[in-house]
């Protein structure tokens, strides 16, 4: 018999589903609760990323590539754990998931973080704005990878 008290992952999923059900303009038929969960989790971890980036670059005076890399690695480790446990509530083999996730993060890092982010800085965009631009690109890519590859319920 289930108790009336839900665990945190169940409450998180129920909250996301409740919000999606209330979306206007028929968006409730288009937006998956896991997408909202991804947005919430990765919005928070993106804040961690920007905070660590600022700490590394502006406070500690580290070179920008080092600051970007350290901030990115910490934020995406946190994102993996939270998305696995809270959002997708996966019980699949964590080792396989971590390997696929690491490969996706590597592609994401090279293409969006260094390519778009550092490229935009090289073109004169302020580094926080460049990181936000790269973040928008990576959000679409990573949600798709998490949903259909890393935490897929198939196989």
Write the layout of secondary structure elements.
Blueprint: H1 8-21, H2 33-59, H3 64-87, H4 94-122, H5 127-150
Give the averaged pLDDT, no decimals. 89
Instruction: Give the biggest beta sheet.
Output: none
Q: Could you state the order of secondary-structure elements as H and E?
A: HHHHH
Rg, nearest Å: 17 Å
Low-confidence stretches: none
Shape: globular
Considering DSSP H and I runs of 4 or more, what fraction of the residues is helical? over 70%
The total beta strand count reads 0
By DSSP (H or I, 4+ residues per run), the number of helices equals 5
Strand content: under 5%
What is the rounded distance between the termini? 30 Å
Structural class, please? mainly alpha
Q: What features would you describe in this structure?
A:
The protein has 155 residues and is an all-alpha fold. 76% of the residues lie in helices and 0% in strands. The protein has helices spanning 8-21, 33-59, 64-87, 94-122, 127-150. The longest helix is centred in the last third of the chain and has 29 residues, at 94-122.
